[in-house]
Structure formats: structure tokens, C-alpha cells
UniProtKB/TrEMBL annotation:
Listed Low complexity bias regions: 582-604
Entry's localization field: Cell membrane
Membrane topology classification: Multi-pass membrane protein
GO cellular component: plasma membrane
One family name in Pfam for this protein: BPD_transp_2
Protein name: Branched-chain amino acid ABC transporter ATP-binding protein/permease
Domain (ABC transporter) ranges: 304-552
Chief location: membrane
Keywords recorded for this protein, A-Z: ATP-binding, Cell membrane, Membrane, Nucleotide-binding, Transmembrane, Transmembrane helix, Transport
Molecular-function annotations in GO: ATP binding; ATP hydrolysis activity; branched-chain amino acid transmembrane transporter activity
Record PANTHER family: CONSERVED COMPONENT OF ABC TRANSPORTER FOR NATURAL AMINO ACIDS, CONSERVED COMPONENT OF ABC TRANSPORTER FOR NATURAL AMINO ACIDS-RELATED
Keyword 4Fe-4S on entry: no
């Protein structure tokens, strides 16, 4: 019986250690510092844990746990300051070095008794260990459905897309580091007070690998993962004993093979075998939540202004001397041959790439300097990407919910105590996301994983995700790529309806016909510079545009190609004239109703946090 009590406690303790790894893995980080943090917490707690209850009421173990978690969290924060920007294997190596440093430091201290180890009072029972594990699992369960949990998942799936939704990636990565440190501290204190004896060598590289394997085998995309991993791997030696196979190499071998199998065939770990609840991705009706969104800037308000903006990469001048202005309710097109600098320009506008020349402001945020993409996004700019950047393992609705990050509040604390307002807020966010998913025609596919959607659907999903941010300026980078004629036409209608709602749209697209029919104004780039700008008709008539697309001065060009292109351009002028005439007649019909639906005459929307 005693043996089983011990096994049960070890399962719980290993589960807690695995949760500490899980806490960083859910944000896409690989940290091996956890055992170092755990031993730091365990040994320092020996200095403060009293023999009797503190003030006569607080049990010594609680004092140790609170202290150990604080030490773990604080040490993780200090470690995070220099390493938080490292990625992948570099972060793993830096954190492993930290764990080794801690081990060597503790071995050389007299108060830890060095390698001989230190005795601890036995304060942890199996029940206490399982209660601690349940509390930790509860935290991660409630976190997974909150805005914070979604932000972690988004960072894990695609950092650039996450930051473009307004998520401060560095801050969240640090938060996950600190949470992981606190959980590691909890593990360290409980481990020492269960085994009654610990020496710094027990918190070695091998222990770090064990914890990591447990977390990864269990699964890193669902909160039950670490528990599964722990039950499975801790029970292995017991199974061995029951079967009478007593060889030390079996457990490491099996866990190694399992790790390999999980990485190759089961990216979600053992927990990934549990079917996901469809209800988590069910559409929610909620016209009131959509109606309660803040008003967009009044039509015609200047949202984007660029003066002489430029970007050089070493000797390569990707973009040079761009002057551009976009107002609320306007669809502004950017066209030009491959390599003209269009994507570089929108990357500067969205804060992804800092300019190297000129000035620019977007929704009150100055481009360059310390401005990052998440600040621009929070001011009201949402975007899609030339190379689709969805959160592949999340459902379509979950993707769009991340898009709604900017307009939703964090619900974690409320969710922890099951406050009804948490449900209400989550429902509101879901309603906004559902409305956008339906708007782009993907209502039926809400529960499908983004990675399983067709190419055209993925493009539409990216647009829905951007729209969920309720943006004042929507930046679309080649949204019609891979779409057929009918789909492109529908997209064009969607863009026009957004503009009618008062959204400004900056769009890059190679489908010139669609651009002429959709845009109010078009800027043409070639070799990083503006070569033409104006209404679709003006641009279509400009010979410089034809030359740019021809790729050479007319004389040198193949006459057949030149003739084809000239013909195409003539056709395009017709398309542009038709589109302009249509727009003029719609405007005339709407004249008494000057402001478009959904617009207001209020001041331009700005996020006070971002304009400080
Ligand atoms: N990170 C980089 N380092 C060096 N050069 C770059 C970088 N990014 C872009 N460039 C260069 O800047 C120029 C403009 O590229 P950009 O991708 O902005 O063009 P584009 O108009 O979007 O092209 P496409 O239509 O093919 O997407 C190209 O010559 C490209 O090689």
C-alpha cells in the first residue's frame, strides 16, 4: 500500500513538473530551465519554512510553497530578461546553461550542504500532491479558453500573425516564462518535502529531459497532456516490476521511442487523441455584441499618411520616397510588377518592418522607432499576408476569435471563479467572430481546423480574422491569389461593402482587372518608387503603367506581347470607366444619406493606451 502511495505521489509531482514545461510549450517556447528553477525554490525554501505553523495558523508547507513559487517566478523573470527573444534551440541551450549554473552554484554553497544533500521535513502526502496537481491543472484548463490562452496558442502557431492581431508577443512569452517558473517552484518545494532529502544533483539534465518528455508525450495543445504523460511514464517502472523485468535501460528507451513517435505521428501528444469538443467552435448569434462595437472613424478622415517613406536592405533600395494618404471609407490599391516593393510598403505600414527613411503615421501611431506591429494593430490596423499565415491547428472560429483580441477583454481571472460576466464576454467575442466568419462565407466550416481548409477558404478565413479586429484600416496582401473568377468577384463585392461601412482598405493584388473594378484610387509602384497614382481610369490610361508591366521600354519589347498588353489595357480602361460610372451613380443615389452604414461623424477612433 505504502508503495502505491509513493507511486501516486510521484505521478502527481511529475505531472506538476510536466505542467511547468507545458506552460512554456503552449507559447511555442522550449525551456530547459525548469529543474534549475525547481531546485532554487526547494533549497531556498529550506531557509524560510518554519517548524511550526506561521502565526499559529499558516501551515509550514504553505509558507514553503508560496515562497518557492515566488522564487521560481522571480528567477524565471530575471532569466527571461536576456533570453526571452531567443527562439527554438538557442532558447533551449541558454535555459539549459542556466539550470547547470544553478546546480553548480547550489552544490558549492554551505547552506545547501553541497553534494551531500539536505534533509527536509516530510510535509507532503499523496492527497496534498494530488490537490496541488488538481489546482495547477485547473489553472491551465480555465486559461485555455480565455483570451490569454488563445494568445498563447496564436504565438505558438505563428508569431508574426499573432503580433499582427495586436498580441504583444514578448510580454506574453515572458508571462508564460514566469508562470512556468512559479509551477517549477511549486514542484521543487513539494518534491523536497516529499522525498525528505534532496541534493542539487537530483535536479540535473536528466531530470529536465524527463520533465520535457512527459510534457511532450502527454501533449502540448491540451491541458490534460501533462497529466496523461505523467501517469503513463511514471507507471512504466511499476509495470516493469509487475512483469518481472528489472532493467534500468527500459524506461529511458521507451520514453525516447515514445517521444520520437509523438513528434513524428502525433503532434498533439497523447491528449491529442481525445476528440475536440465541437461545441467549442459552434457559431453564436449576437447582433447586440456586433452593434456594441465602437464606431469607425467618419468617412474621409485621414487614417494613413506617408511622406517620403523608404526602406533599404543594405545596398538594396526596396522602397523609396513614397508619399501616400488613405482615408476612411476608401479602397486604395497598390499594384506593380513582381519585386516592385508592394509587400515591403505594407509591412512598413503595419509596423512589421521599420522604415529607414521618411515619416509616416497610421491611426495616430508614428511608424519606425519603437513602434511594433502589435501597437499598430491595436490602433485599428488589421491585415492578411501574401503567404497565408493562419493558426493551422486551431479551428476556423478559433482563428477568428484570436482576430477579435483587440476588441475583447481578458477573462482569465473571471473564468477562474466562474463569474457569469466571463461567459457573457466570451459569448460577445464569439458572436463577433461568428458574424465575420459568416460574412466571408465560412459559417459552415467554423469547426474545421484552419490547416485542413482549401486554399481559397484559407484566404477568406484570413480576411475574417482580420475583420474580427473591427479595423479602421484593413490591409490585404494579394487576397485573390488562387481564387477563381467568381470568387474574386465575390471578394471585390465584400471589399466594396466594407468600404461602404467606413473601413479603409489598402490592397495589393496582381489581378489588375479586379483592382480597377474595386479601388477608388490606385498607386502603381515600380522598382520601389511610385510611377503613377490616381483613379482606376487615370492609372489604366497611363503609358508608364503599361511599360512597367511590359518590363522594358516599348521599343525593345516583343511586338506581339506589346500588342496583347495594349489590348488588355484598353479593355481595362473600359472596365475602369464602367466601374467609375457605376460608383458615381450609386453615390448619386445615396446623396441624401451622406455617411455610409456603420460610420459616424465622431472623432477618429484611437486606442488611448497606444496614443499615450
Ligand atoms: N528582407 C529583405 N532583404 C533584402 N531584400 C529584400 C528583403 N525584402 C524585400 N527585399 C527586396 O525588396 C524588393 C521589393 O520586394 P517586395 O517583396 O516588397 O516586392 P513586391 O512588389 O511585394 O513583389 P511581389 O509582387 O513579387 O510580392 C525586392 O527586390 C526584394 O528582393
Amino acid at each position: 500500500m505504502q508503495e502505491y502511495a509513493s507511486l501516486l505521489t510521484f505521478i502527481a509531482l511529475t505531472g506538476i513538473l510536466a505542467f511547468s514545461f507545458y506552460a512554456v510549450l503552449i507559447a511555442g517556447q522550449l525551456s530547459l530551465a525548469q529543474v534549475g528553477l525547481a531546485s532554487l525554490a526547494a533549497f531556498t525554501s529550506s531557509l524560510v519554512v518554519p517548524a511550526d505553523p506561521l502565526f499559529g495558523v499558516i501551515p509550514p508547507l504553505i509558507v514553503g510553497i508560496v515562497f518557492g513559487m515566488a522564487v521560481g517566478g522571480l528567477a524565471a523573470f530575471v532569466l527571461g530578461l536576456p533570453v526571452i527573444r531567443l527562439r527554438g534551440v538557442f532558447l533551449a541551450i541558454a535555459t539549459l546553461a542556466f539550470a547547470e549554473m544553478v546546480r553548480i552554484f547550489l552544490i558549492n554553497q554551505s547552506w545547501t550542504n553541497g553534494a551531500q544533500g539536505l534533509s527536509f521535513p516530510k510535509l507532503v502526502t499523496p492527497a496534498i500532491a494530488w490537490i496541488a496537481l488538481a489546482v495547477v491543472a485547473y489553472w491551465f484548463w480555465r486559461m485555455s479558453g480565455s483570451r490569454m490562452g488563445r494568445a498563447f496558442a496564436a504565438i505558438r502557431e505563428d508569431e508574426l500573425a499573432a503580433t499582427s492581431m495586436g498580441i504583444n508577443v514578448t510580454r506574453y512569452r515572458m508571462t508564460s516564462f514566469v508562470i512556468a517558473g512559479a509551477v517549477a517552484g511549486l514542484y521543487g518545494v513539494m518534491f523536497a518535502h516529499f522525498t525528505r532529502f534532496a541534493d542539487p544533483n537530483e535536479f540535473s539534465f536528466q531530470a529536465a529531459v524527463d520533465g520535457l518528455v512527459t510534457a511532450v508525450v502527454g501533449g502540448t495543445t491540451m491541458f490534460l497532456g501533462p497529466l496523461f504523460g505523467s501517469v503513463f511514464l511514471s507507471a512504466l517502472p511499476e509495470l516493469q516490476r509487475t512483469l518481472g523485468i528489472d532493467a534500468g535501460w527500459i524506461r529511458p528507451t521507451i520514453s525516447g521511442v515514445l517521444l520520437l513517435l509523438v513528434i513524428l505521428f502525433l503532434p498533439g501528444g497523447l491528449a491529442g487523441l481525445i476528440p475536440r469538443r465541437k461545441s467549442a467552435s459552434r457559431l453564436v448569434e449576437g447582433a447586440d455584441a456586433v452593434a456594441a462595437l465602437p464606431p469607425l472613424p467618419a468617412r474621409g478622415t485621414g487614417l494613413l499618411e506617408l511622406h517620403g517613406l523608404g526602406k533599404s536592405y543594405g545596398g538594396v533600395r526596396a522602397v523609396h520616397g513614397i508619399d501616400l494618404a488613405v482615408a476612411a471609407g476608401e479602397v486604395h490599391g497598390l499594384i506593380g510588377p513582381n519585386g516592385a516593393g508592394k509587400t515591403t510598403l505594407v509591412n512598413m505600414v503595419t509596423g512589421v518592418t521599420p522604415p529607414t527613411a521618411g515619416t509616416g503615421t497610421v491611426l495616430g501611431v508614428t511608424l519606425g522607432g519603437r513602434t511594433r506591429a502589435h501597437r499598430v494593430a491595436r490602433a485599428g490596423v488589421a491585415r492578411t499576408f501574401q503567404q497565408i499565415k493562419l493558426f493551422g491547428r486551431l479551428s476556423a472560429l478559433e482563428n477568428v476569435l484570436v482576430g477579435a483580441y483587440r476588441i475583447t477583454d481578458d477573462t482569465l481571472l473571471r473564468r477562474l471563479v466562474f463569474l457569469p460576466s466571463a461567459r457573457r464576454k466570451e459569448r460577445g467575442a464569439r458572436a463577433v467572430a461568428s458574424a465575420q466568419l459568416v460574412r466571408v462565407g465560412l459559417g459552415e466550416k467554423a469547426a474545421t481546423a484552419a490547416g485542413d481548409l482549401s486554399y481559397g477558404d484559407q484566404r477568406r478565413l484570413e480576411i475574417a480574422r482580420a475583420l474580427a479586429a473591427h479595423p479602421s484600416l484593413l490591409v490585404l496582401d494579394e487576397p485573390a491569389a488562387g481564387m477563381n473568377h467568381v470568387e474574386a468577384e465575390r471578394l471585390s463585392e465584400l471589399i466594396r461593402s466594407l468600404a461602404a461601412d467606413g473601413v479603409a482598405v489598402l490592397i495589393i493584388e496582381h489581378n489588375v482587372r479586379m483592382m480597377l473594378a474595386t479601388c477608388d484610387r490606385i498607386t502603381v509602384l515600380n522598382f520601389g518608387e511610385v510611377i503613377a497614382a490616381g483613379t482606376p481610369t487615370e492609372v489604366a490610361r497611363d503609358p508608364k503603367v503599361l511599360e512597367a508591366y511590359l518590363g522594358s521600354e516599348g521599343d525593345d519589347a516583343d511586338p506581339a506581347v506589346a500588342e496583347d498588353l495594349a489590348e488588355a489595357m484598353e479593355e481595362l480602361v473600359e472596365v475602369a470607366e464602367e466601374a467609375e460610372a457605376e460608383a458615381a451613380s450609386v453615390e448619386a443615389a445615396n446623396t441624401p444619406n451622406t455617411a455610409g452604414a456603420g460610420t459616424t461623424d465622431g472623432p477618429a477612433e484611437q486606442n488611448p493606451e497606444e496614443t499615450r
